[in-house]
Amino acid sequence: MAKFILGNRFRHKAAESRVISRVFWAIDLVFVGAIVGVFRLLPVTWATGLGAWTGRLFGRIMKDRTRKVRANLALALPDTPLPEIARIASDVWANGGAAMAEYPKLAQISDPERNHLSIEILEPIATYEDPSQPAVFVGAHMGNWEMMAAAVARLKIPSVGMYAPLANPWFDTLMRRYRAAMGTRLVSRDEGVRPFINALKKGESAGMIADRRIEGGQQVDFFGAPKETTILPARLALRFGVPLVPVQVIRLPRTRFLVRFHPPLYARNPAEDHDSQATDLTRQINATFEEWIRERPGQWLCTSKIWPTAILMAKTGVYIKSKKR
After folding, report:
1. Can you tell me the distance from the alpha carbon of 168 to that of 43, in angstroms, rounded to the nearest whole number?
2. Model confidence over 218-228: pLDDT tens digits?
Protein backbone atom coordinates (compact mmCIF):
# COMPACT_ATOMS: atom_id res chain seq x y z
CA MET A 1 0.00 0.00 0.00
CA ALA A 2 1.25 3.50 -0.82
CA LYS A 3 2.69 5.46 2.10
CA PHE A 4 2.75 9.21 2.38
CA ILE A 5 4.37 11.74 4.67
CA LEU A 6 1.37 14.05 4.48
CA GLY A 7 -2.13 12.72 4.03
CA ASN A 8 -1.26 9.20 5.12
CA ARG A 9 -4.73 8.84 6.61
CA PHE A 10 -6.01 8.71 3.02
CA ARG A 11 -3.67 5.90 1.97
CA HIS A 12 -6.57 3.44 1.64
CA LYS A 13 -8.27 5.70 -0.92
CA ALA A 14 -4.95 6.20 -2.68
CA ALA A 15 -4.55 2.45 -3.02
CA GLU A 16 -7.69 2.49 -5.18
CA SER A 17 -6.61 5.38 -7.41
CA ARG A 18 -3.31 6.01 -9.16
CA VAL A 19 -4.30 9.66 -9.58
CA ILE A 20 -4.79 10.18 -5.84
CA SER A 21 -1.44 8.50 -5.16
CA ARG A 22 0.30 10.83 -7.60
CA VAL A 23 -1.31 13.87 -6.01
CA PHE A 24 -0.07 12.93 -2.53
CA TRP A 25 3.34 11.94 -3.88
CA ALA A 26 3.61 15.38 -5.45
CA ILE A 27 2.60 17.06 -2.19
CA ASP A 28 5.16 15.02 -0.29
CA LEU A 29 7.87 15.85 -2.82
CA VAL A 30 7.20 19.58 -2.54
CA PHE A 31 7.15 19.34 1.27
CA VAL A 32 10.34 17.31 1.52
CA GLY A 33 12.02 19.23 -1.30
CA ALA A 34 11.48 22.52 0.53
CA ILE A 35 13.00 21.14 3.73
CA VAL A 36 15.91 19.49 1.93
CA GLY A 37 16.47 22.70 -0.03
CA VAL A 38 17.10 24.55 3.22
CA PHE A 39 19.57 21.89 4.38
CA ARG A 40 21.37 22.05 1.03
CA LEU A 41 22.02 25.78 1.47
CA LEU A 42 23.49 25.46 4.96
CA PRO A 43 27.03 24.53 5.98
CA VAL A 44 27.31 20.84 6.81
CA THR A 45 27.40 21.18 10.59
CA TRP A 46 24.51 23.64 10.56
CA ALA A 47 22.46 21.27 8.42
CA THR A 48 23.12 18.43 10.89
CA GLY A 49 22.15 20.63 13.85
CA LEU A 50 18.97 21.90 12.23
CA GLY A 51 18.11 18.39 11.13
CA ALA A 52 18.48 17.10 14.68
CA TRP A 53 16.22 19.90 15.99
CA THR A 54 13.67 19.17 13.25
CA GLY A 55 13.79 15.47 14.07
CA ARG A 56 12.99 16.11 17.74
CA LEU A 57 10.09 18.33 16.64
CA PHE A 58 8.72 15.63 14.37
CA GLY A 59 8.99 13.18 17.26
CA ARG A 60 6.71 15.38 19.35
CA ILE A 61 4.25 15.80 16.50
CA MET A 62 4.16 12.21 15.26
CA LYS A 63 2.94 10.72 18.50
CA ASP A 64 1.84 7.36 17.10
CA ARG A 65 5.24 6.82 15.50
CA THR A 66 6.95 7.87 18.73
CA ARG A 67 4.96 5.18 20.55
CA LYS A 68 6.56 2.64 18.22
CA VAL A 69 10.00 4.07 18.94
CA ARG A 70 9.46 3.82 22.69
CA ALA A 71 8.09 0.29 22.37
CA ASN A 72 11.11 -0.82 20.35
CA LEU A 73 13.47 0.76 22.88
CA ALA A 74 11.61 -0.70 25.84
CA LEU A 75 11.92 -4.19 24.38
CA ALA A 76 15.60 -3.72 23.55
CA LEU A 77 16.43 -2.09 26.91
CA PRO A 78 14.11 -3.82 29.38
CA ASP A 79 15.80 -2.48 32.52
CA THR A 80 15.64 1.16 31.42
CA PRO A 81 13.15 3.41 33.29
CA LEU A 82 10.37 4.86 31.15
CA PRO A 83 11.54 8.49 31.55
CA GLU A 84 14.93 7.43 30.18
CA ILE A 85 13.20 5.58 27.34
CA ALA A 86 11.42 8.86 26.49
CA ARG A 87 14.73 10.75 26.47
CA ILE A 88 16.40 8.14 24.26
CA ALA A 89 13.39 8.22 21.90
CA SER A 90 13.94 11.95 21.47
CA ASP A 91 17.60 11.24 20.65
CA VAL A 92 16.47 8.65 18.09
CA TRP A 93 14.39 11.31 16.34
CA ALA A 94 17.28 13.78 16.51
CA ASN A 95 19.69 11.31 14.91
CA GLY A 96 17.14 10.43 12.24
CA GLY A 97 16.55 14.11 11.49
CA ALA A 98 20.28 14.75 11.29
CA ALA A 99 20.72 11.82 8.88
CA MET A 100 17.91 13.16 6.70
CA ALA A 101 19.47 16.61 6.64
CA GLU A 102 22.78 15.11 5.61
CA TYR A 103 21.52 13.53 2.37
CA PRO A 104 22.13 16.61 0.21
CA LYS A 105 25.53 16.88 1.92
CA LEU A 106 26.67 13.28 1.35
CA ALA A 107 29.17 14.29 -1.32
CA GLN A 108 30.83 16.74 1.07
CA ILE A 109 30.75 14.41 4.06
CA SER A 110 32.31 11.55 2.10
CA ASP A 111 34.96 13.78 0.46
CA PRO A 112 38.41 12.45 1.52
CA GLU A 113 39.69 16.04 1.62
CA ARG A 114 37.30 16.89 4.45
CA ASN A 115 37.55 15.74 8.04
CA HIS A 116 34.11 14.15 8.38
CA LEU A 117 34.85 10.46 8.03
CA SER A 118 37.44 8.29 9.77
CA ILE A 119 37.93 4.56 9.43
CA GLU A 120 39.01 2.00 12.01
CA ILE A 121 39.84 -1.58 11.00
CA LEU A 122 39.85 -3.99 13.94
CA GLU A 123 41.09 -7.02 12.02
CA PRO A 124 42.66 -7.03 8.54
CA ILE A 125 41.23 -9.19 5.79
CA ALA A 126 42.51 -9.76 2.26
CA THR A 127 39.89 -7.41 0.80
CA TYR A 128 41.49 -4.33 2.34
CA GLU A 129 44.82 -5.06 0.64
CA ASP A 130 43.37 -6.51 -2.56
CA PRO A 131 39.90 -5.09 -3.34
CA SER A 132 39.42 -7.70 -6.07
CA GLN A 133 38.96 -10.28 -3.30
CA PRO A 134 35.35 -9.62 -2.25
CA ALA A 135 33.66 -9.55 1.12
CA VAL A 136 30.11 -9.11 2.39
CA PHE A 137 29.66 -6.03 4.59
CA VAL A 138 26.66 -5.78 6.88
CA GLY A 139 25.51 -2.86 9.01
CA ALA A 140 22.60 -1.46 10.99
CA HIS A 141 20.60 1.77 10.83
CA MET A 142 22.88 3.58 13.25
CA GLY A 143 24.55 6.99 13.17
CA ASN A 144 24.36 7.86 9.50
CA TRP A 145 24.26 4.35 8.02
CA GLU A 146 25.08 5.70 4.54
CA MET A 147 28.65 6.18 5.77
CA MET A 148 29.23 2.43 5.53
CA ALA A 149 29.14 2.66 1.74
CA ALA A 150 31.30 5.78 1.82
CA ALA A 151 33.93 4.02 3.92
CA VAL A 152 33.96 0.95 1.66
CA ALA A 153 34.48 3.25 -1.33
CA ARG A 154 37.21 5.14 0.58
CA LEU A 155 39.06 1.81 0.84
CA LYS A 156 38.76 1.56 -2.98
CA ILE A 157 36.64 -1.59 -2.72
CA PRO A 158 34.16 -1.90 -5.62
CA SER A 159 30.82 -2.86 -4.17
CA VAL A 160 27.11 -3.26 -4.71
CA GLY A 161 24.73 -1.96 -2.05
CA MET A 162 21.13 -2.90 -1.43
CA TYR A 163 18.52 -0.23 -0.81
CA ALA A 164 14.79 -0.36 -0.16
CA PRO A 165 12.97 1.74 -2.79
CA LEU A 166 10.62 4.37 -1.43
CA ALA A 167 6.93 4.25 -2.27
CA ASN A 168 7.08 7.73 -3.80
CA PRO A 169 8.96 7.22 -7.09
CA TRP A 170 9.95 10.89 -7.37
CA PHE A 171 11.28 10.99 -3.84
CA ASP A 172 13.06 7.70 -4.49
CA THR A 173 14.82 9.21 -7.53
CA LEU A 174 15.94 12.18 -5.43
CA MET A 175 17.35 9.95 -2.70
CA ARG A 176 19.19 7.73 -5.17
CA ARG A 177 20.78 10.83 -6.68
CA TYR A 178 22.14 11.82 -3.27
CA ARG A 179 23.26 8.27 -2.49
CA ALA A 180 25.22 8.10 -5.74
CA ALA A 181 27.86 10.24 -4.00
CA MET A 182 28.75 7.23 -1.85
CA GLY A 183 30.58 5.51 -4.69
CA THR A 184 28.61 2.27 -4.40
CA ARG A 185 26.45 0.81 -7.16
CA LEU A 186 22.92 0.63 -5.76
CA VAL A 187 20.57 -2.30 -6.31
CA SER A 188 16.91 -2.22 -5.36
CA ARG A 189 15.73 -4.83 -2.87
CA ASP A 190 13.02 -5.66 -5.43
CA GLU A 191 15.68 -6.95 -7.85
CA GLY A 192 16.38 -9.89 -5.56
CA VAL A 193 19.64 -11.71 -5.01
CA ARG A 194 20.88 -12.06 -8.60
CA PRO A 195 22.73 -8.70 -8.81
CA PHE A 196 24.71 -9.62 -5.69
CA ILE A 197 25.59 -13.06 -7.03
CA ASN A 198 26.78 -11.50 -10.28
CA ALA A 199 28.79 -8.86 -8.41
CA LEU A 200 30.55 -11.37 -6.17
CA LYS A 201 31.34 -13.53 -9.19
CA LYS A 202 33.07 -10.51 -10.74
CA GLY A 203 35.10 -9.84 -7.59
CA GLU A 204 32.95 -7.00 -6.29
CA SER A 205 31.89 -6.85 -2.65
CA ALA A 206 28.33 -6.65 -1.35
CA GLY A 207 26.91 -4.40 1.35
CA MET A 208 23.54 -4.22 3.06
CA ILE A 209 21.80 -2.86 6.14
CA ALA A 210 20.17 -5.76 7.95
CA ASP A 211 18.54 -4.71 11.23
CA ARG A 212 15.02 -4.18 9.89
CA ARG A 213 12.12 -6.61 10.06
CA ILE A 214 11.74 -8.22 6.63
CA GLU A 215 8.39 -9.75 5.80
CA GLY A 216 8.92 -13.36 4.87
CA GLY A 217 12.35 -13.42 6.50
CA GLN A 218 13.58 -16.12 8.83
CA GLN A 219 12.56 -15.92 12.48
CA VAL A 220 15.76 -15.08 14.37
CA ASP A 221 15.88 -13.70 17.89
CA PHE A 222 16.74 -10.02 18.30
CA PHE A 223 16.98 -8.82 21.89
CA GLY A 224 15.37 -12.10 22.94
CA ALA A 225 12.28 -11.76 20.73
CA PRO A 226 11.80 -13.41 17.32
CA LYS A 227 12.07 -11.06 14.35
CA GLU A 228 11.68 -11.78 10.66
CA THR A 229 15.26 -11.33 9.52
CA THR A 230 17.09 -11.46 6.22
CA ILE A 231 19.67 -14.21 6.01
CA LEU A 232 20.94 -12.99 2.64
CA PRO A 233 24.27 -11.62 3.95
CA ALA A 234 25.08 -14.94 5.60
CA ARG A 235 24.03 -16.98 2.56
CA LEU A 236 26.15 -14.89 0.20
CA ALA A 237 29.22 -15.12 2.44
CA LEU A 238 28.85 -18.88 2.72
CA ARG A 239 28.14 -19.48 -0.95
CA PHE A 240 31.23 -17.58 -2.10
CA GLY A 241 33.45 -18.36 0.87
CA VAL A 242 34.13 -14.69 1.58
CA PRO A 243 34.39 -12.80 4.90
CA LEU A 244 31.20 -11.51 6.51
CA VAL A 245 32.19 -8.20 8.09
CA PRO A 246 29.99 -6.18 10.49
CA VAL A 247 30.48 -2.45 9.89
CA GLN A 248 29.55 -0.03 12.68
CA VAL A 249 28.86 3.66 12.05
CA ILE A 250 29.25 5.94 15.07
CA ARG A 251 28.08 9.55 14.98
CA LEU A 252 30.54 11.98 16.57
CA PRO A 253 30.11 15.71 17.29
CA ARG A 254 30.20 18.27 14.45
CA THR A 255 29.04 15.95 11.67
CA ARG A 256 31.91 13.53 12.03
CA PHE A 257 31.65 9.76 11.80
CA LEU A 258 33.75 6.82 12.82
CA VAL A 259 33.24 3.77 10.62
CA ARG A 260 34.52 0.69 12.42
CA PHE A 261 35.17 -2.51 10.45
CA HIS A 262 34.78 -5.33 12.97
CA PRO A 263 36.43 -8.76 12.74
CA PRO A 264 34.64 -11.04 10.29
CA LEU A 265 32.06 -13.52 11.54
CA TYR A 266 32.39 -17.26 10.91
CA ALA A 267 29.95 -20.13 11.34
CA ARG A 268 30.69 -21.79 14.65
CA ASN A 269 30.15 -25.30 13.26
CA PRO A 270 31.48 -25.61 9.68
CA ALA A 271 30.34 -29.25 9.62
CA GLU A 272 26.67 -28.19 9.57
CA ASP A 273 24.73 -27.70 6.35
CA HIS A 274 24.62 -24.24 4.76
CA ASP A 275 21.13 -23.46 6.06
CA SER A 276 22.19 -24.10 9.67
CA GLN A 277 25.40 -22.15 9.20
CA ALA A 278 23.47 -19.23 7.68
CA THR A 279 21.11 -19.17 10.65
CA ASP A 280 24.05 -19.25 13.05
CA LEU A 281 25.78 -16.36 11.24
CA THR A 282 22.55 -14.35 11.26
CA ARG A 283 22.23 -14.88 15.02
CA GLN A 284 25.78 -13.56 15.37
CA ILE A 285 24.92 -10.52 13.24
CA ASN A 286 21.91 -9.77 15.44
CA ALA A 287 23.99 -10.22 18.60
CA THR A 288 26.56 -7.77 17.21
CA PHE A 289 23.85 -5.22 16.45
CA GLU A 290 22.49 -5.66 19.98
CA GLU A 291 25.87 -4.67 21.43
CA TRP A 292 26.04 -1.56 19.28
CA ILE A 293 22.50 -0.52 20.15
CA ARG A 294 23.01 -0.98 23.89
CA GLU A 295 26.10 1.22 23.67
CA ARG A 296 24.38 4.02 21.73
CA PRO A 297 20.60 3.48 21.67
CA GLY A 298 19.91 7.08 20.67
CA GLN A 299 21.76 6.51 17.39
CA TRP A 300 19.54 3.60 16.33
CA LEU A 301 16.83 4.47 13.81
CA CYS A 302 13.88 2.47 15.15
CA THR A 303 10.97 4.64 13.99
CA SER A 304 9.16 1.66 12.46
CA LYS A 305 7.99 -1.48 14.24
CA ILE A 306 11.05 -3.70 14.51
CA TRP A 307 8.87 -6.49 15.91
CA PRO A 308 5.20 -7.29 15.20
CA THR A 309 2.57 -5.54 17.29
CA ALA A 310 1.72 -8.72 19.21
CA ILE A 311 5.29 -9.11 20.41
CA LEU A 312 5.62 -5.45 21.36
CA MET A 313 2.39 -5.63 23.35
CA ALA A 314 3.43 -8.85 25.08
CA LYS A 315 6.97 -7.74 25.87
CA THR A 316 6.48 -4.12 26.91
CA GLY A 317 3.81 -2.09 28.62
CA VAL A 318 4.85 1.08 26.79
CA TYR A 319 3.00 0.10 23.66
CA ILE A 320 -0.14 -1.00 25.55
CA LYS A 321 -0.29 2.07 27.75
CA SER A 322 0.27 4.39 24.81
CA LYS A 323 -2.45 2.73 22.75
CA LYS A 324 -5.00 3.12 25.59
CA ARG A 325 -4.45 6.84 25.94
Report:
1. 28
2. 999 999 999 99
